[in-house]
Design a protein that fits this description.
The complex is a heterodimer of chains A (252) and B (289). Chain A is of the alpha/beta class and 252 residues long. Chain A has 10 helices and 9 strands. A 6-stranded mixed beta sheet of chain A has the order 5-6-7-3-8-9, with helices on both faces. In chain A, strands 2-1-4 form a 3-stranded antiparallel beta sheet, covered by helices on one side. In chain A, a hairpin with a 1-residue loop joins β8 (202-207) and β9. In chain A, α4 (108-120) crosses α5. The longest helix of chain A has 16 residues, at 166-181. The two termini of chain A are 31 Å apart. Chain B is mainly alpha-helical and 289 residues long. In chain B, 84% of the residues lie in helices and 0% in strands. Chain B has helices at 2-12, 14-39, 43-64, 68-92, 97-119, 122-130, 138-167, 169-175, 179-206, 208-218, 224-249, 253-271, 277-281. In chain B, α2 packs across α10 (208-218). Chain B is globular and about 65 Å long. The chains are: A alpha/beta (252), B mainly alpha (289).
Chain lengths: 252, 289
């Protein structure tokens, strides 16, 4: 099976400091991959790199020919201005951007799609509610409805089940599995190891670099998890330039 | 009686009709811009940029007196320069954008007043600082109407990316490259509308007809479309009542218009259906669901 994502010795970070260091490997088309690791392991940074919000410091990420509109991203919801006077319906309709663009009208057929997405996440009846009035769990359901409408080949979820109750996370997980069954590639950053073991066939254990990557059962071993926990959270303004980088530059 | 009070000033005097046309045009374009300024938490940025326009218009005045095009052009150039410069300073230094703007606008105001005083009289200075809505000539009115038309058409084009950029900028960046251009076009519209209000109300009060109606709207609607409608209507209403008041009471018209808007704002804070104080104090019995 061909690769949907290829990491070519990619280093991602901010202001020359790496957060994900020399990651290499690939994600097959249609994979359902959990990305696991301690806080500060670089999960969010890796996702920002994948969806094109962050340019690699070195190396490259190949997206198997996907454009930015073919990738749907669920960031941590802190990025959303919930005080903006917008209805749930209009917010979810943003997911039609790929289809409707900046000017396309939202007529009957598209309104129907929005309604279906709202129904799929259990938010029927919330259409006219202002987004600021939703609870945390309802907010996450609304974001999933928007993701559905994006109809993307690659779906990247940053801590999708954080701060939501068991029922909501079960409902949303069901959607994730549905996307997987449809042949879409799904990546999710997660902290709940039981959930990963039970529902995600593959796992990347990240601690700045890949500690282990492959079948979930083989990745989430006690030894690997301890190794990840001991990840160095080094951040040094006086740090020397990366040695591996210097060597590869010299070779080139 | 009612006719004499409310309608006669406009049927009898052409300058009143022009003033009304001007203030309606300013309301139509400026109020929607103000709503977005407020929602983007940029109300003070608008105020700062209004000050920044002053030295540009003052240089226009220095070169060719109270000439419409020289002052408009000068104001536009100064406004764009400050918008870009403060953005550059905020992005490339430790200073946040609001601090950068505060510096720019204080310096701009001082510079503008100095330049006008070098050549003009105190009357000129008053005219440049506070505009004169009762002295709009055909040319000025056409410029105001033209700018308002351009603003409304441009807003129609950038409306969707602008809303998405306000609510969820990260989402916009993941589906489109329209984010940065949309922000720039919006800032350009802010400058154009400030310069537009400049002739009628002066740079210091021009921003009032944008921000105050936006503040009023927040208390009457939970929906962006509704807010824009409320803002436009309350801006035009303030303009009309302000002109009537200035005609009968002999007070300066620009400040009268802004005071009317401020009065509407106070009423909205008290009685507004969305988060007004009265609603908070007397919410009524709670509902079943």
């Amino acid at each position: 099976m061909s690769a949907q994502l290829q990491f070519r010795n990619v280093t991602l970070g901010y202001d020359r400091h790496p957060a994900v260091h020399h990651l290499a490997g690939e994600v097959a088309k249609g994979a359902l991959l959990a990305v696991v690791g301690p806080n500060g392991a670089g999960k969010s940074t890796l996702f920002r790199g994948i969806v094109g919000l962050l340019k690699p410091l070195s190396g490259a990420i190949e997206r198997g020919g996907l454009g930015i509109r073919d990738i749907a991203f669920l960031p941590q919801s802190a990025d959303i201005d919930r005080s903006f006077p917008l209805s749930v319906f209009d917010f979810v309709a943003m997911g039609l951007w790929r289809d409707a663009g900046a000017f396309g009208g939202i007529r009957a057929r598209r309104r129907e799609r929005v309604q279906q997405a709202l129904a799929a996440v259990g938010l029927t009846g919330f259409e006219r509610r202002a987004i600021g009035t939703l609870s945390g769990g309802q907010m996450q359901r609304m974001l999933f409805a928007r993701l559905m409408l994006q109809d993307a080949r690659l779906i990247v979820l940053d801590e999708p089940f954080n701060a939501v109750d068991a029922k909501t996370s079960a409902d949303l997980l069901h959607l994730v599995e549905h996307w997987h069954a449809e042949g879409r590639t799904v990546l999710a950053a997660l902290h709940d190891m039981d959930l990963v073991r039970n529902h995600f066939p593959q796992t990347l254990l990240l601690a700045r670099g890949a500690v282990a990557w492959g079948d979930t059962a083989q990745v989430l071993t006690p030894d690997n998890l301890i190794a990840a926990r001991q990840m160095c959270e080094a951040f040094d303004d006086e740090a020397a330039a990366c040695a591996a980088e210097t060597a590869s530059a010299r070779a080139a | 009686m009612v006719h004499d009070l409310l309608i006669a000033p406009f049927t009898e005097f052409e300058f009143m009709r022009r003033a009304l046309a001007g203030v309606v045009a300013l309301s139509l374009a400026g109020a929607p811009i103000g709503v977005f300024l407020m929602l983007r938490r940029m109300s003070l940025v608008g105020d700062a940029m209004a000050h920044a326009i002053l030295p540009g218009a003052a240089i226009g005045f220095l070169l060719s007196g109270l000439n419409l095009f020289a002052m408009t052009f000068g104001g536009l150039i100064a406004g764009f320069a400050v918008a870009i410069l403060s953005g550059v300073v905020a992005r490339n230094t430790e200073l946040k954008e609001d601090a950068a703007l505060a510096t720019f606008y204080l310096a701009s105001l001082a510079l503008g007043v100095t330049i006008v005083s070098m050549r003009g009289t105190n009357i000129d200075l008053l005219h440049v600082l506070f505009g004169n809505i009762l002295a709009l000539d055909d040319q000025t009115l056409l410029v105001i109407a033209f700018n308002a038309t351009v603003t409304l058409l441009t807003m129609a084009i950038i409306y969707r990316p602008l809303v998405v950029e306000c609510v969820d900028p990260v989402f916009l960046r993941t589906v489109s490259r329209a984010g940065a251009p949309t922000h720039l076009v919006f800032m350009a519209l802010v400058v154009i509308n400030l310069v537009n209000g400049f002739h009628a109300l002066g740079p210091l009060l021009a921003v009032g007809l944008m921000i105050l109606p936006a503040g009023i709207a927040r208390f009457w609607s939970r929906d962006i479309t509704g807010m824009i409608a409320v803002a436009v209507v309350s801006a035009a209403l303030s303009g009309y009542v302000g002109l009537v008041l200035s005609y009968h009471a002999g007070v300066p018209s620009g400040p009268a218009i802004i005071l009317m808007a401020a009065g509407l704002y106070v009423v909205s804070v008290l009685f507004g259906s969305v988060g007004g104080l009265l609603r908070q104090w007397f919410p009524g019995r709670h509902l079943e669901a």
